[in-house]
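for ur thesis appendix - Cytochrome P450. copy paste whatever u need, i formatted it the way the template wanted (i think)
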Amino acid sequence: MESTLFATILICVFTTLILVIVKLRKNEYKPGKKLPLPPGSLGIPVIGQSLQLLWAMRSNTGEKWLEQRIRKYGPVSKLSLFGNPTVFIHGQAANKLVFSGDGSALASSQTKSVRMVLGAQNLLELRGDDHKRVRGAMVSFLKAESLKQYVGKMDKEVRLHIQTHWEGKHEVQVLPLMKVLTFDIICTILFGVERGSSRRAKLVQYFQDMIQGIWAVPINLPFTRYNRSISSSSKVDDIVKDLIAEKRAQLQRDAGAPRDLITSLVDMNNSQAISDAEIIDNIKLVMTAGHDTSSVVITLVICLLSNQPSVCAAVVKEQEDIAKSKSEGETLTWEDLGKMKYTWRVAQETMRMFPPIFGGFRNALKDIEFEGYLIPKGWQVFWATGLTHMDQTIFPEPERFDPTRFENTASVPPYCYIPFGGGARICPGYEFAKVEILVAIHYIVTHFTWKMCADNQFSRDPMPVPTKGLPIKIEPRNRNVSL
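the 3d part is after this line
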């Protein structure tokens, strides 16, 4: 049996290599006389520079690796990543190319594993009118005007989380707990799945297995992470299908039923209506994006505040002033969040120095001229978030943590600060993440002081995460402030 399994693996790997080589040769472009290809090399067939990039990300030197390319080739260069000929672009103009436009030149391009796990109709895969329609449906719920009514619910989730996982403890691991918190918020506010239900417990289990294989090698063999991920993704599909049916029946009984993201998507009018398959795939996308991004940002803020006493003191003062204005048990409001200006600048500066998204890929739908070079149709375009963030011509002394940089956001050139993307392609969950981050930070800093247990190393997997989960020792800050 073992020899049969080994032979099957070899056949799958060999077949994959052949297909990739064929794809590379099919996409090979011989430039004409007018526009040259960018400088650089496609490297070894199939492998290209993929392993170099992944190793640099794991050792948290991904930006340095790209900076070396820029010094050698300039802001535009060709390479091969994950089996595809690729053009790496960098700078304000590059970011504008990626995040602006009508989608006729560049389209989102995800790896096969992402596409297979999250579904082919998620927002990262849709193009043109379909992308606009689905994005518009999601933004209608996630925009600031709609989120005002959910601040109280999010407040209650955070307070219950603090009571359950922080109070009475002497040491906690921040990142795992923040992932628990963000998933609880997603379940309650976005999906309307309340605490204590068996469905919620199953959803947590299946989701954890699902995300394990998103960035795995897409060979669907038994007992692999990718196989478990595909299986769990199908189980998540079944749960969301049941939720859709229940929300639809509820709306038929009562058009004024409580709203969550699924209910809002089900109840779109005919001009914006999206299919059940689109709802399912985009719910999985929201689960994945919302779970990782916010939890990482909150963790990084806690880490940086421990090393910035004056910044931490300013955040604590701002948040305690808000806490003192509230009566016992009273939840935060949208107006309270508007007073957290300095705290949000701290979060912005954290994301400048440690953007949660390293970068991404687009696919050239046609030949594109950029900076005097040709990006051929069918090639990948690779962009990185942190390079303009750490450009001293844009942000003086970029290595220094300075939240005052964001006192006047108009002074930051467009398409230079892009932790959530930019322009028409800004993340639709940006405002939701902002509320989530501010409410969590409010309760942590007003109820606890903390110290690092040890020096924390970070790696990218693919987000910046503390390798030990950020263990901290905690003590109650103010016993007179109750949850």
